[in-house]
Design brief:
alpha+beta, Rossmann fold, globular, binds S-adenosyl-L-homocysteine
Length: 378
Amino acid sequence: MASLPGEAAFDPAARIAANLRARIASQGPLPISVFMMEALFDPMAGFYATRDPIGAGADFVTAPEISQMFGELLGLWAAQSWQDMGSPESLVLAELGPGRGTMMSDMLRAARAVPGFAVALKVSLVEASAALKMVQGQTLSRSAMPVGWAKSIETLPAGPALIFANEFLDCLPVRQLVRTDGQWRERCVGPHPEDEDRLAFVTGPVVPDDDPFIPPDLADSPDGALIELRPGDAQVIDALAARFAVSPGHALFIDYGPDRSEAGDTLQAIRAHEKVDPLDAPGTADLTAHVDFAMLARLARTAGLSVHGPVEQGAFLRGLGIEQRAAALGAARPDQRGVIARQLHRLVDRAEMGALFKVMAISAPGMPAPPGLPANAA
Ligand code: SAH
């Protein structure tokens, strides 16, 4: 960035480091959730606030950026779900954390093939990053459909809705607890004991055993165990429960994580497609943790919502016809067949994204199962 003579260039990483040091000095070691919020979403210097991190030349690649087939199939899934809801005259088509807007753009293109569907749509995006909102606006200007932004799930337009979220839950801040002498303690970020310019993980205050975010199957973990709690999940579920109490809809979550709660540290930092130390230069790397689908489903059912899935991404996309779609694209562009086959492989193969990524719908009470997902009554 250009700077005026005598003025220091703005250094986002230095700002985040200074913010963290100041907070630690006044409040003591910070829970990992607070550290993640600062590093990812500080409005001036946070990782998402300052850049477009998604794509081959950037920090990480997501399913919609691998292939147009991903968004197209979700567009058809949306059209089918709309018909199953009785084709309401108006439908909110929302996306949480839309990244570059690629998935929504591919969904809308596919949606046009279904008579009456596109005209019913009110497209609304929930995005925390000003930088990515700009990219979304550019991408979606090509779709010639009005697009709006809402600040949160709570403020999306009212009415029947289909809500999509790909790799959104994984960047909601997590807490970590460590079992020490028969008690849970908050794992925190504090000063490094040997180098004041660096940060270190430290053990913080005791957390009561009946903390409602502790997954029940992990409550009796042995000393040394580390578990992750996801307070953001409960906020998402509360917002969906409020909305789905008055109007029908599904929220479709696609993310990576096991289908049962597991102990272990899954916090990871990715910069330029490489895993790096999460505490190294906060604000310059993406921070994520595995989604706990079992806990998410439990919270949803407790709130009176219906749950469908989770199923593995590979099986879900195959069920929606991704192989036929790949064959059709390859027939239209024989020169691209190899590329399309590789994209298909990355999305569905069990050694690639096919098994680690799961798809789960959280739905208004009593909604029929949406395409490709069985009812989950566990
Ligand atoms: N869904 C996109 C982007 C995934 S990256 C894709 O698949 O390519 C995560 C996205 O969620 C980014 O757009 C990020 O800015 C956004 N995000 C993360 N936490 C958010 C929050 N609390 N509120 C709104 N957007 C958020």
